[in-house]
Amino acid sequence: MTGRRPYLWIAIGALTLAALTDAHDRALAQAYPSRPITMIVPFGAGGSTDAIARLVADRMRVSLGQSVIVENVSSPAGTLGVTRAARAAPDGYTLSLGTWPTHVLNGALFRLPYDLRTAFAPVALIAANPQLVIARKDLPANDLAGLIAWLKANPGRGLQGATGRGSSGHVIGLLFQQMTGTRYEFIFYRNNPQQLQDLMAGRIDLMFDFAGSALPYARTGSIKVFAIAQKTRLATAPDIPTVDEAGLPGFHFTGWHGLWVPNGTPQAIIAKLNTAVTDALADPGVRQRLAGLGQEIFPRDQQTPEALAAFQQAEIDKWWPIIKAAGIKLDE
Fold first, then answer.
1. The model's pTM
2. How far is 287 from 136, CA to CA, in rounded Å?
3. CB neighbours of 92 closer than 8 A, spacing ≥ 6?
4. What are 145-157's pLDDT values in tens digits?
5. Are 40 and 94 in contact (CB under 8 A)?
6. Which of 115, 142, 150, 177 lies 20 to 30 angstroms, CA to CA, from 68?
7. CA 297 to CA 299: how far, in whole Å?
């Protein structure tokens, strides 16, 4: 019997430590937040990600009783801001607002000082921004099938715009070529307005762009819209067919935003933050303003930390092999 006593004391010690840790985390959560919280946005002020952050952060204040201050930490691919968030203390006072490029693509494109799969703990999925397949207004095609036929009839001659090598538009274009058996060239731009201007001027042939920025030009007839790259039609533009309806089933891509905290943040604090986000997304005023930005709020059952973790992993599983197969690797 005496031989078992050391193991017994070790087991009791482990249980005691776990209980003390749990009690400590609960105490922290009860006092949290006791000061303002910082939400790091890895892009400059004035863009759609910044606008979404400020809408959600402002409403989170009501639930948390403390201000949520948006801090823009801009770099070309958003890596600087995400790095700062990854290195922050896991105490709930630094949040990372992320996107498909910052929290999926960058892990395959750059040699990062953190692992996107382990550096953060998920808080909530926020909203999605569907992508449209668009083209210059005088392209000799009237639907998606016609666009694909035109590209096949003119191999290597088509021009697609994208905001930089390894950007979302570039990676989506690679998938489009793979699924359609087409081949064309990419023209890279510094920002989205520049490539939209060239599309409207007829200097490039096609693009993949968010509904929020492309629809105003489509409604004036400045560009053609062939399909939306998701399973369901847009509530704000129900006349646009899905890619499945238009003849390219499975070509699905939706930009999205989610909220993370540094890994190691107590679960009780994550639960408080999740409640603040879901309260914000249920607010009619926030919902209306997000809709005005072309955003579609995820259903309530998809706003959990678990749903964000599963969603991010599914996106990594889908897109990292595409990037690897294309041989894209960038250094920043």
1. 0.82
2. 32
3. 32, 33, 37, 261, 265, 266, 269, 270, 272, 273
4. 999 999 999 999 9
5. yes
6. 115
7. 6
